[in-house]
User: What shape does this take?
Amino acid sequence: MNIVLLSGGSGKRLWPLSNDTRSKQFIKIFKTADGEYESMVQRVYRQIKSVDGEAAVTIATSKSQVSAIHNQLCENVGISVEPCRRDTFPAIALAAAYLHDVRGIAEEEAVVVCPVDPYVEEDYFASLRALAERAATGGANLVLMGIEPTYPSAKYGYIIPENKNCISRVSVFKEKPTEDKAREYMEQGALWNGGVFAFRLGYVMQRARELIGYADYQTLFDRYDSLTKISFDYAVAEHEQHIEVMRFAGMWKDMGTWNTLTEAMESDHIGKAILNDRCENVHVVNELNMPVLCMGLQNMVVAASPEGILVSDKNQSSYIKPYVDEINQQIMFAEKSWGSFQVIDIGEGSMTIKVTLNPGHGMNYHSHALRDEVWTIIAGRGRTIVDGMEREVCAGDVIRMPAGVPHTIYADTMLQVVEVQIGSEISVHDKKKITLRNAESDK
Amino acid sequence: MNIVLLSGGSGKRLWPLSNDTRSKQFIKIFKTADGEYESMVQRVYRQIKSVDGEAAVTIATSKSQVSAIHNQLCENVGISVEPCRRDTFPAIALAAAYLHDVRGIAEEEAVVVCPVDPYVEEDYFASLRALAERAATGGANLVLMGIEPTYPSAKYGYIIPENKNCISRVSVFKEKPTEDKAREYMEQGALWNGGVFAFRLGYVMQRARELIGYADYQTLFDRYDSLTKISFDYAVAEHEQHIEVMRFAGMWKDMGTWNTLTEAMESDHIGKAILNDRCENVHVVNELNMPVLCMGLQNMVVAASPEGILVSDKNQSSYIKPYVDEINQQIMFAEKSWGSFQVIDIGEGSMTIKVTLNPGHGMNYHSHALRDEVWTIIAGRGRTIVDGMEREVCAGDVIRMPAGVPHTIYADTMLQVVEVQIGSEISVHDKKKITLRNAESDK
Assistant: This one.
């Protein structure tokens, strides 16, 4: 099975665990059988591989997520990188071009497109495979998955099928309705549109040629920012006559808000938390290294990360976005291709961060114009290059990098560093990449 | 006026802002006229000085609070340091000995004893002065302040006066009653016992001679840990025949729990916080450098400090102590005589702290057996002595101190340092004070 996972943009609705650089699909919140926690991306990837070990998984996403994907999944997952955000039709057209031109997938092969963040069981991925088989062998150009509604939701679009068979032609699409309208649709056998569909690769390439004059992957990639934002539903699905829907009646949850996310939590807390016995329907997700004590709370979610602390009534948690938009602070935590960093102190004229480098990884060779830096190695072994000079480092070593001096660090084992930045102007933009001529530079 | 402020022990009931090393009276929570925040200790001290600029203030407290008192009040406040905790009678006896033997107060002078943490206005301190005058000139050995009750509280002890005059002889003391009993007492004109009283210094010295064989201050200090724990009420007040009570009808609040403390807050939050318009009767005290977002909360307090995060229904906030007792973690923030420190990262085999030294102050000269330390100066100017060698330091300087090497740092201006500790065993107990022979040692 060829599967394209659409990995969406910044998820402020799950602040403070998600933010501009960290989307909700990367939050490790789901307990696995071995007691570890995995993210939505990891869960979905594991489930796909469990249903179809041969599945070719491609993630369509923006550049900002590439590091997190490499950190959380194995290196050989395909990534179709969108140069900027242009909604689902351009993203799917680019992914189709990537599959054909870069990965060599034939035009006759079926491809399934699916959001990266549904909370589902393995039967869902078995259905995706059935969807792909139908797309490969049936007469329709598009085969949608229609999710059996469990309540008359006003949050989803609806697909009205021609009949109630397992596979039916699509009669009409309906946008997010009122609850009353949704009840009517349900009586007609309507299904939720979860944004899941399968097609033969050549079909979408043909639509892309017609609609945006696609020639090949590289050309499309280069002019991606000139494309109009439009969803796949508007651009393609709603105009297609040869279109079917396949019913899916298994478990499916949309993890878009804290309210729905906490429903999927196995225990009432992740991280350090104490809930007294007067707490009811309370969930705590605590990424900080300090305890959260909850006393006498009802129907609440408490979430804490280096970005901030959310304390919310569960129903009210759907409305946090405008408030989070107003919070304009330093990004406190980020995953990078080489590991991660966390800001641990911000002073006037200084910032202190804790850097974790994964084994075998290193930073770019770079310098800063306006700040000095001091590295104190606190764990692990590795090598630094400062002004062309390489040295081995381990816990306790200190490296000083005055402004203007190029430097980098490589991890031989997992490596942890306290980095103190000192300067009148400390900014992520004050960074100059430098080509390293040393033989070490190929890391 | 001679006034002894009893500064009590660790205040877990206001966790996470108070803890074993930081009592509630030092939390800066009250907004002053100039927009700054002051602590209970600072507020009470300012109020006393405003009513009586000549007042001689002595704080009776444990050693662990001396640094915080010096940081928050001017240096010339008297401190009677209790070598260990022995309840109020030994504490007051020691303070009386301190006043007489160390400060040279005559036995005929009146002394007022008062807890350090009532939330009151200046009329309260005017009443204390009246209390002292009555003790100095009247016939009674003890003159208590009796607070007019505002409701039949089961939280306080009651004083039943012989009559309802402004000053009356005490008929009897009543321990914390039920609410019904309290209602009865109130009908009899009973008053709350706020632990405030005045006496001639010689009276308490005499009682101390009789009850614990007190000879002089130093002797009492040296054998303090052998004294029995007993309150002043049990040991003295309840046996005294010549005892009066003076009514006080002004504003008086006991700041013992989050519920009562938040009543004294001028705005709904201190620190970074956003409350949406669906929040009602919510107070946030946030000492962290990250925002707290509250959505749809009712009757709640949210308090965050480096020690942890409390999210509590206001009524339930009275019951946090047993839960806090179970939290056994690293102290994350402490005030010291030279400034303060905050733990900003704990790793395996490392700890990183941010140290702030006040101008003119320095650490003891000391070494650690089991850890290396690295100081990176992030702000200010000062001097370090490492292994006997002195150097001037400023922002950007780095000082390495391998295990066993003695070191200290002095602040010429306000000085901030990131200290990285590296070692297999990091403990506050791994510290050896060393006598510095250098001329600099007199700092």
Summary: The first helix of chain B runs from residue 40 to 51. The two ends of chain B are 34 Å apart (CA to CA). The CA atoms of residues 97 and 219 of chain B lie 10 Å apart.
